[in-house]
Amino acid sequence: MHGAATPAGAGASRSAAGPDAPPSSAQIEAAAMSASQTGSPEARQQLQRWARQGLPVAERELGTLYRKQPERLGAARQLLEHAARAGDVEAAFQLGELLRAGGPAQAGQPARAWPWYRQAAEGRHAKAALTLGQMAANGEGVRKDAAVSVQWLAVASELGNAHAMFLLSNAYRYGVGVERDERKGLKWLEEAAEHEYPPALQDLALAVQNDDAQRAGHLLKEASEHRRNNWNKY
């Protein structure tokens, strides 16, 4: 099945590299997608074999797969931690998510999640940086600190996360955790709107309605069109 379904380019790459060459990240992720979306036992077994070889991407993908199975949360945590310690940024983020959420037999542990989110954020993981900003703002797992929140929201914003841009805009507009700066607030609101983030489109419409009613109407229409499609992306 795998031989018949493998793209010619992938097969040629393996042949050129030799039969004992480790799989590429793309091959591992393709097997993980097959195991997750189709329930392919062959793909799952291959993923397990690669994880036993200590390949961080395979450990991360198998750990992420196990996160969906309450009885395997312990195994998921071990796999993700091993991959994260090997430097896998996405594994660090997924481990943070697992620890923060907890499971049926264990409450969430945001304080333990924080350093893993931080590792991921320092590896330029935008959503990890956003999460740190939210946790610091709410005092979740760490001392409540609006200034620290702004620092991480700025990191996430620079990495292109629209939700973070919107929150950073509010911080500047209302002077929360940072000196009030309407110009910077509007800049980040515009950036978030450019990324089609519905709350930013709505707030920007309100901000410009007195000076440009036509643009405000367009922004509100755009927010309505994008809300269902974009809301879960951030």
From TrEMBL:
Pfam family for this entry, one: Sel1
Sequence intervals crossing the membrane: none
UniProt-listed SUPFAM superfamilies: HCP-like
What domain of life? Bacteria
UniProt cross-references to SMART domains, sorted A to Z? SEL1
The chain's coiled-coil residues are none
Chain intervals for the UniProt region annotation (Disordered): 1-49
Q: What is this protein called?
A: Sel1 repeat family protein
Organism of derivation = Pseudoduganella aquatica
